[in-house]
Specification:
The protein is an alpha/beta fold. It contains 13 helices and 22 strands. It has three domains: about 190 residues, FAD/NAD(P)-binding domain (3-Layer(bba) Sandwich), CATH 3.50.50; about 110 residues, D-Amino Acid Oxidase, Chain A, domain 2; about 35 residues, no CATH class. Bound molecules: flavin-adenine dinucleotide.
Length: about 375
C-alpha cells in the first residue's frame, strides 16, 4: 500500500474524484482558497478527444469571474457564432449569437480545455493523480473518508475530510455512498470525429429526424464532430453501432451530411448515455456531487459544460464552508441544484415540443407536449419526496 501525500497526517482536505471540467474547476478553486485538494482521475493520460464542445455565449461572465476567460480566449478553441437548425421543418434557421451581449460562444477543443483547467489547478497547489480508480466501498472513519485506489498494479489508501464526486455520469462515489440516481429518459449518443478542410462557418448545426436528432460542429485542428441522439431502444440505435450503419444514417440526413462534406466514418462511433438524470439528494456526510455526477442534461440544452463549471464553483464553496464548520452549506448547495434543474425542466421540453413532424414515432411521442414526461416525472418525484 502506498499513501497519497497530504498536507496533514495523510489526510487531504478534499479529494476530488474525476478530473473533467467540474473536477478541475472545483480543485482549482479549493486550492486558491488554501485547501489541500487532490484530484483523482481514472484516465492515465489525457484523451485525444472529449465529447461536448459547445459553450454558449452566456458562459463569458462565469469564466470571467473565475479568472479563466483570458485563458480560454488564448487557447486553441474556435469562436462559435450561431446555432443553425432544421427542426420542425426542413429549412435551416439561424439563431445568431451577435444578438447576445457577449457576441459569440466557443467550439472547444474539449480535451485541451479540461487539460488546461487541470494544469491551472496543479499550479494553484492541487495534487493531480492520474490512472487511479476508487475500489470497494468508501468508509467513514475518524472524521474522514477512507478509500482504496487501484493504481496500475498497486493499491493506495486515501483519506480526505471531504469528497467531491465529479466523475460525470458514472457518479461513482455518490452511488457507492448509496445515493439514488434518477434517470428521466433513455437518450443515447453516438459520435465520431471526421477530418474537415475547414471549420465551416462556425455554427453548430442541428437536424431532427424520425428517431431523434443530429448535430455537427467544426472543431479546432481541422476536425468536425458529428453526433446522433436517439433512444436506446430504436432501430437507429441498433444500426448506429457500426461504421457502416452510422454512415448510412448520416447519409440520410440532408444538412448534416452536407456539412460533413459527404464524409463517412472509418470506424464504429463512440457511444454513451446522454439523457437527463440527477442524483436526487446530491450530498451526504462530508461529500457532494458536482457536474454531470449531480445533474446530467440532454445535450440539446447546451448547458452541460456551463453547469459543470457553475456547480463546481458552488461545490468548492460548499466544501470550504463545511470544513470550517458550516451546517447548512450542503442543504443550500442542494437547493441551488434543485433550482437549476427546475429551470432546465421548465425550458428544455419546449425545444422538443417544437418538432411535430413525427407524432407517432416513439422518440417524439415520448417527448410530446403537453405535458412533457420529464415534467410529470419531476412532479411525481417531488410528491414522493
Ligand atoms: C454527445 C454529447 C454532446 C454534448 N455536447 C455538449 C455541448 O455541446 N455543450 C455542453 O455544454 N455540453 C455538452 N455535453 C455535456 C457535457 O459533455 C457534460 O455536461 C460535461 O462533460 C460534464 O462535465 P463533468 O466534468 O461533470 O463530467 P465529465 O466531463 O464526464 O468528466 C468526468 C471525469 O471523471 C472521470 N471518472 C469517471 N469515473 C471515475 C472514477 N471512478 N474515478 C476517477 N475518475 C473517474 C472521467 O474519466 C472524466 O475525466 C454533451 C454530452 C454528450 C454525451
Amino acid at each position: 500500500m502506498t499513501h497519497i501525500p497530504a498536507r496533514d497526517g495523510g489526510v487531504v482536505d478534499v479529494a476530488v474524484l474525476g478530473g473533467g471540467t467540474a473536477g478541475a474547476v472545483a480543485a482549482l478553486l479549493l486550492a486558491r482558497a488554501g485547501c489541500s485538494a487532490a484530484v483523482l482521475e481514472r484516465r492515465a493520460a489525457p484523451p485525444d478527444f472529449t465529447i461536448g464542445e459547445g459553450l454558449p455565449p452566456t458562459v463569458h461572465p462565469l469564466l470571467d469571474r473565475l479568472r479563466l476567460l483570458n485563458e480560454v480566449r488564448a487557447g486553441p478553441h474556435l469562436p462559435a457564432y450561431a446555432n443553425r437548425s432544421a427542426w420542425g421543418g426542413e429549412a435551416l434557421r439561424d439563431h445568431d449569437f451577435i444578438r447576445t451581449p457577449y457576441g459569440h460562444g466557443f467550439h472547444l477543443d474539449r480535451a485541451a480545455f479540461d487539460e488546461a483547467l487541470l494544469a491551472r489547478a496543479a499550479r494553484a497547489g492541487a495534487a493531480v493523480h492520474r490512472g487511479v480508480r476508487v475500489t470497494g466501498r468508501p468508509r467513514r472513519e475518524g472524521g474522514a473518508w477512507r478509500f482504496s485506489l487501484a493504481d496500475g498494479g498497486s493499491v493506495r489508501e486515501m483519506a480526505a475530510r471531504f469528497v467531491i464526486d465529479a466523475t460525470g455520469r458514472a457518479a461513482a462515489f455518490a452511488r457507492a455512498a448509496g445515493a439514488r440516481r434518477e434517470r428521466y429518459d433513455r437518450l443515447v449518443a453516438f459520435w465520431c470525429v471526421l477530418p474537415a478542410a475547414d471549420a465551416g462557418d462556425q455554427a453548430t448545426l442541428t437536424e431532427s429526424f424520425a428517431q431523434g436528432w443530429w448535430y455537427t460542429a467544426g472543431l479546432p485542428g481541422g476536425r468536425r464532430v458529428v453526433a446522433l441522439m436517439t433512444d436506446a431502444d430504436t432501430s437507429a440505435a441498433r444500426a448506429a453501432r457500426t461504421a457502416a450503419g452510422f454512415g448510412a444514417l448520416l447519409a440520410a440526413t440532408r444538412h448534416v451530411h452536407a456539412a460533413c462534406g459527404g464524409a463517412a466514418p472509418a470506424e464504429a462511433p463512440a457511444a454513451s448515455g446522454a439523457g437527463t438524470a440527477r442524483i436526487a439528494l446530491p450530498y451526504g456526510d462530508a461529500w457532494l456531487a458536482a457536474g454531470d455526477a449531480a445533474l446530467s442534461f440532454d445535450p440539446l440544452s447546451s448547458q452541460g459544460i456551463l453547469t459543470a463549471i457553475y456547480s463546481a464553483e458552488k461545490a468548492a464553496a460548499a466544501a470550504y464552508h463545511v470544513l470550517r464548520g458550516s451546517h447548512d452549506a450542503l442543504p443550500r448547495y442542494a437547493a441551488l441544484l434543485d433550482s437549476i434543474f427546475a429551470g432546465y425542466l421548465h425550458d428544455y421540453p419546449a425545444a422538443y415540443a417544437a418538432e411535430r413532424r413525427w407524432p407517432d414515432e416513439p422518440f417524439w411521442r415520448r417527448r410530446a407536449s403537453p405535458p412533457h414526461p420529464l415534467v410529470r416525472r419531476a412532479a411525481a418525484a417531488r410528491a414522493g419526496a
